[in-house]
Amino acid sequence: MRVFFNSLLRLIGITFVLAGCNLTTADRLPTPIPTPDLPRAEILEPPNNVQIIEGTEFNIDIVARDESQGIARIVLLIDEVEVNSATPQEEGPVNVFRVTMNWRASGPGRHVIEAIAYRPDETPSDAAVLNVDVLAPE
């Protein structure tokens, strides 16, 4: 009787294990959504959440990369308004483009600085974002 009971428990256990299996075949798997191959932009300096006195002009060090089609230009935005842009000095797009842009801090409070890199076909990168706190002069 004990052997029968142990065999029955094993059979029930195997049944539960098999019932929990995912029986999806390879041809029925969902199609993965490809990650777009975008250019990349990064703000190297100044650090995020930097504080600066209103009226001070400061530099923003930006690097953009795109190994597939290259970078044609970088745009600098302050609070979603384009304030500067740059193109490589070389003829045509480049795989790595580093540029220093400047901005004269205006308007006390928090400002959002964004850098966006573009390919020659105008494909944009995700924005590199930096927050700056502008302080009123004393």
Largest sheet: 5 strands, mixed
Binned strand content: 35-45%
Enumerate the spans where pLDDT stays under 50 for 5 or more consecutive residues.
Answer: none
Q: How many individual β-strands?
A: 8
Overall pLDDT confidence: 86
Assigned CATH class of the domain at 40-135: Mainly Beta
Fourth CATH level, the homologous superfamily of the domain at 40-135: Immunoglobulins
Task: Classify the secondary structure makeup into a structural class.
Answer: mainly beta
- Tally of individual helices: 1
Q: Strands of the largest sheet, in order across it? A: 2-8-7-4-5
**Considering DSSP H and I runs of 4 or more, what fraction of the residues is helical?**
10-25%
The geometry reads as: elongated
Instruction: Write down the Rg.
Output: 28 Å
Q: CATH topology of the domain at 40-135, anyone?
A: Immunoglobulin-like
What distance lies between the first and last C-alpha atoms, to the nearest angstrom? 92 Å
CATH architecture of the domain at 40-135: Sandwich
Instruction: Report the order of strands and helices.
Output: HEEEEEEEE
Signal peptide: 1-19
Keywords: Signal
Organism: Phototrophicus methaneseepsis
Protein name: Bacterial spore germination immunoglobulin-like domain-containing protein
Mind explaining what this structure looks like?
- It is elongated and about 90 Å long.
- The longest helix has 18 residues, at 2-19.
- With 138 residues, the protein is mostly beta strands.
- The N and C termini lie far apart (92 Å).
- It is 13% helix and 42% strand.
- It has a five-stranded mixed beta sheet, with no helix packed on it. Strands 1-3-6 form a three-stranded antiparallel beta sheet, with no helix packed on it.
- The model has no long low-confidence stretch (mean pLDDT 86).
- It has a domain at 40-135: Immunoglobulins (Immunoglobulin-like), CATH 2.60.40.
- It has one helix spanning 2-19, and strands at 40-45, 50-53, 57-65, 73-78, 81-86, 96-104, 109-118, 128-135.
